[in-house]
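I would love for you to help me understand the pair of lines that follows before we discuss the fold together.
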Amino acid sequence: MHLSVVVISHKSLFAAGIVSQLQARAEQVAVEPLDAGAPQALDRYRALAPAVALVDMNDTEVVQRIGIKHLLDLSPTTRIVQLDPNSDEVRIYGVATRRAQGIGQLLDVMRSVSAPRKGGPARQNSKGSTAR
């Protein structure tokens, strides 16, 4: 499964670190950084409609100025994962809070939240038949 991810941040050092770690796993993840302060960022976000958007939960440019609700309105199927760079906390917006130590555990969290939900699109099971 190739997971589409955007990293939305106004803090370039934060975004660069996460993007670099995810790009090292390019066989699993397609990642794109978006500068929350750039005028075209929200248009690009809407066009990408990623499976997951990673957001620094302490980045006021994203959390307060843009707003998580607005991100969901622009791309309703995108799951918002908020990271706390001061701890191992990962908050899946509107769902749960989990711990993720390292990029591998972060990928596990992103995969689990981007999986089809009940009542969502049909998926194939290991025997090739369609399941819901």
In short: The chain has four helices and eight strands. The two ends are 18 Å apart (CA to CA). The first strand starts at residue 3 and ends at 9. Helices lie at 12-23, 41-48, 60-74, 103-114.
